[in-house]
Automatic annotation (TrEMBL):
Extent of the signal sequence: none
GO process terms (BP): methylation
SAM-dependent MTase RsmB/NOP-type domain: residues covered: 129-408
Binding residues for S-adenosyl-L-methionine: C231, A232, A233, P234, G235, G236, K237, D252, D278, D294
Protein name per UniProt: RsmB/NOP family class I SAM-dependent RNA methyltransferase
Biological source species: Novosphingobium bradum
Length: 408
């Protein structure tokens, strides 16, 4: 029989391994790793341990290396177990004796004695982590002069952002939910509350959507005809377009994710036409007044929520995504009615997926203006928008996005 708490630690070890060795996302890996764990709390604990280990990996490794004579190989099992032990102790507040009792049984023999010794050394020294996580060196190099601000934002879990169906009711919902608003139709709450229990969920008054993720649809303006939302599922941006009065066609390659989109539209009582297709070979029967291309991307702008992106995304992934994004945007640009608007968005922090893509588009730019954005954000000199988690620090930051807009 397993000792209590061990299955959650074993699952956390599987999660870490799936991300770091097989390049899976935490979400993909969670499906397999937590199979067989009955209690929801244990499944959540496994994920929390792995996520904190990934968020603080370079700092945890520095502590481990400070307590060993020879550095342990990067993929050695004792290093992986120590990463989890330290994440529990230093990030989740688990007392050291409980960490030892529940995680050390993952190892046997010499490796177990080694990990025990390193952990004992670090607890005796009262080791601590820096004020915020250090980025892996390759990531810090890619993010250049924004790396420090983004790293600072990584220390805190992101707030819970809601988008209201009726932006005219912003003040009422801010009061009712006890949050703050950074834009019309936006309410920000501290994370922690179960979403389904918040007032307004059942009645379809709002949906969960990061503030940055709500900006692309806002930049298409109030509904004035037909809108095509490409790569639309699960539908946060399509809901915004429908709520703004656009007649929305939502297209996505994943039938399963489109089921979630349909459920979301049903909950919000908004109309939508759904198309299951790949943007790479779909041929529209009509032209559109507005197109939103929320392209598939490396999602490195969501690193606060998904710290696995800090470790699995390589220059090869970024190049592959950039090629796909360029192909999708080139097709899409021909599907606008005269005078129609196209918005391109990615939740990536990488210039290859943002600025470099936008610079190659032949349509007429429709520069984003500061008045269209929440206070504290400003467009680039080219009229694009680049956000990252280090922006709006007093309000709790926002995801990293790149957004550009053109007119046919
Ligand atoms: C970032 S998510 C979109 C989020 C969505 N726009 C929202 O606001 O809720 C990316 C989506 O792109 C879809 N996708 C990826 N490649 C695609 C393609 N070639 N054609 C159509 N959809 C694609 C995926 O199935 C996924 O649902």
């Amino acid at each position: 029989m397993d000792i209590p708490g061990l299955p959650a630690r074993r699952a956390a070890l599987k999660l870490l391994d799936a991300v770091l060795r097989r390049g899976e996302t935490l979400d993909q890996a969670a499906h397999n790793a937590v199979q067989g764990i009955a209690a929801d709390a244990d499944r959540q604990l496994a994920r929390a341990i792995a996520a904190e280990a990934l968020r603080w990996l370079p700092d945890l490794d520095a502590l481990i290396d400070s307590a060993t004579r020879e550095p342990l190989p990067d993929d050695a099992k004792p290093r992986a177990v120590l990463r989890l032990m330290l994440a529990q102790w230093l990030r989740l507040g688990t007392p050291p004796h409980a960490v030892v009792a529940t995680a050390l049984p993952l190892l046997m023999g010499g490796p177990k004695r080694l990990a025990h010794g390193v952990f004992a050394t670090l607890t005796r020294r009262e080791a601590s982590l820096p004020a915020h996580p250090s980025l892996p060196a390759a990531v810090a190099a890619r993010w250049g002069d924004r790396a420090g601000a983004i790293a600072a934002a990584l220390a805190l879990p992101p707030a819970l952002d809601l988008t209201l169906k009726d932006a005219g009711e912003t003040a009422q919902w801010v009061e009712r939910l006890g949050g703050l608003s950074l834009a019309p139709g936006h309410v920000r709450l501290p994370r922690g509350e179960a979403v389904e229990r918040l007032p307004g969920f059942g009645e379809g008054a709002w949906w969960v959507q990061d503030l940055a993720a709500s900006l692309p649809a806002r930049l298409l303006g109030p509904g004035a005809g037909t809108a095509l939302d490409l790569c639309a599922a699960p539908g946060g941006k399509a809901l915004q377009l429908a709520a703004a009065g656009w007649q929305v066609t939502a297209l996505d390659a994943s039938a399963k994710r489109l089921e979630r989109l349909r459920d979301n539209f049903a909950r919000m009582a908004l109309p939508v036409e759904v198309v299951v297709a790949d943007v790479q070979d779909w041929e529209p029967q009509e032209r559109f007044d507005a197109i939103l291309l929320d392209a598939p991307c490396t999602a490195t702008g969501t690193c606060r929520r998904h710290p696995d992106v800090l470790h699995r995304i390589t220059p090869t992934h970024i190049r592959g995504m950039a090629e796909l994004q360029q192909r999708l945007l080139a097709r899409t640009a021909g599907w606008l009615n005269p005078g129609g608007r196209l918005v391109y968005a990615v939740c990536s922090q990488e210039r290859e997926e943002g600025e470099d893509i936008a610079a190659g588009v032949a349509l007429t730019p429709l520069p984003i203006r500061a008045e269209e954005l929440p206070a504290g954000l400003s467009p680039t000199p080219e009229g694009w928008l680049r956000t990252d988690p280090g922006m709006l620090p007093e309000a709790g930051g926002l995801d990293g996005f790149f957004i550009a807009r053109w007119q046919a």
